[in-house]
Amino acid sequence: MTLVQSIQKYDLRLSRSAYGVIAVLLVPAIGVANFMAGKDITLSVFYVLPIAIAAWNIGRSFALVLAFVSVVAWIGADAAGGAHYQNYFLLLWNGTIRLLLYVVVIGLINRLQFLQQDLEHRVEERTADLRREITERKNLERGMLIAAERERRTIGQDLHDGLCQQLTGTALAGQALVERLAADARPEASECRRIVEHLEEAISLARKLAKGLNPVELQADGLMEALEEFTATTTELFGVRCAFECDSPVLVHSPTTALHLYRIAQEAVSNALKHSGASEIIVRVDSLEAGVKLTVLDNGCGIPQARFIREGMGLRSMAERAKAIGAEFVIMRRFSGGTELGCIAPDAAGAVDA
Fold it and tell me: Which range among 60-69, 129-138, 182-191, 268-277 shows the weakest confidence by mean pLDDT?
């Protein structure tokens, strides 16, 4: 604890009346010390201490009264100690000079107190402005994420209800054409059959795209099912082992939290595929007292240097998503090689849906 903090802590324990009592008691105490020091040693400068205490903690009027009392106490102590003046003018002069000194000290303390209060006021205003800016930025970032997710869901729904249905209708018409050509033993039947197969592959791909754009169902176990399907699809498409691990059922009651955790896992796996050269990726979810923990591990080359981390859009996106749901987010290089991403999110049931 610093000296300033100690003083502030001490100040909180004393009232204005307590400071007044301390200041008043210090004046006779210094006067006694002045008397004991004798006429050749003056302790008038020490009267500044009770005057400063009064000026800072009580007010200027009380400090001025105490300054006058201090001058009287100093003169009385010197007189009791054997000091003699040739005339009253010298006594009046010395007393006036000391009183003016105390008045100047009181003025400086009041000015310092005013500057401190003004500075505290400015700091409070600036802090309030910064808090408002931070809140507005968080709301803006959250709004952008929500808007992006809504757009993804809309596109995914359009793919599923529009493109997939059109392709399915085309494939059915093609299949009917194949059957007619085959019935007539036409050689074009085999070519038409390949066209139908390509259409079916396109339907499957479109459905996967639609599922990827709108992956997490509203049920509490939607995150587990979405991650399990995502890892299986990643293994099938990219030829790497991408496994989902979950020792016990992890239920996420907030659709917003589930969706952001899914997107974080999706981005982490994408980064591992693009940049690390990993042959094995593990996506894991666990239920903790603090909430839901998402872990993504890979055996690639490890996370790049710090400059790349700051500039990477994917990592910034994951960090922003974690921040949006109040999650703790960390990414680091594994000692055994590769990268480990951890995200612990509180699961708030009833959170606002994205």
Answer: 182-191
Contact present, 272 and 278 (Cβ < 8 Å):
yes
Round to whole Å and give the CA distance between 93 and 333: 78
Helix (H), strand (E) at residue 294:
strand 291-298
User: Residue 116: CB partners within 8 Å, gap ≥ 6?
Assistant: none
Supply 338's token pair: 């590769």
SS3 2: coil
Is residue 305 scored above 70 in pLDDT? no
What are the pLDDT digits (tens) for 83-116? 666 677 777 888 888 889 889 999 999 999 899 9
Are 331 and 321 in contact, with CB atoms under 8 Å apart? Answer: no
* DSSP bridge pairs for 285: 294
Whole-number pLDDT of residue 302: 80
CA dist., res. 176 & res. 192, Å (int): 10
Q: How would you class 50 by CB atoms within 10 Å of its CB: exposed for 0-12, middle for 13-18, buried for 19 or more?
A: buried
- pLDDT, one tens digit per residue, over 9-32 is 555 456 888 888 888 888 888 888
> What is the tens place of the pLDDT at every residue in 267-296?
899 888 888 888 999 999 999 988 999 999
Cα–Cα distance for residue pair 287/249, rounded to 1 Å: 8
Residue 110, token pair as written in the block: 């009041």
User: What count of residues does the chain have?
Assistant: 354
Q: Nearest 5°: CA angle at 167, between 209 and 191? A: 115
Those residues whose C-beta lies under 8 Å from the C-beta of residue 268, and which sit 6 or more positions away, are: 283, 296, 318, 341
pLDDT at residue 3 tops 50: no
Q: Which residues of 277-316 are buried (b: 16+ CB within 10 A; e: fewer)?
A: ebeebbbbbebeeebbbbbbbbbbebbbeeeeeeebebbe
